[in-house]
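Example record for the data management plan.
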Amino acid sequence: MDPTQLEHIEQRLLRERDRAMRSLGRFQQQQSKLARDSSDADLSSYSFHMADQGTDAMEREKAFLFASKEGRYLYRVEDALRRLYNDPTNFGVCQSCQSQIPFERLDALPHAKYCLACKRREEEEAAA
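Corresponding structural encoding:
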């Protein structure tokens, strides 16, 4: 991969990291707001309605799942940046077959570790 392509991938990874961090920050703000609102709104030990409790629980679980997914994505992006900074000459090499991952794949998925053929094989083995 030439230096301009590496620079492009680095910028893509940095933008993706910033986006994921902002997203996680929003989840944290929402959770803090929900916690404050629930403690301020109901000073008694009784809830307003069971359906409200269910809705609140569902919203908390949904927010947790989204934050968990973003956290895993952020980990993959950070790992790709580490690989890029530690060994730029081998960045973009498939970790399975050692062939060069096409730039188009890295442009679409900058944290990719495997070429398309190896990733498909891995997914087929996991499904079996």
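Summary line stored alongside the record: The mean pLDDT is 87.
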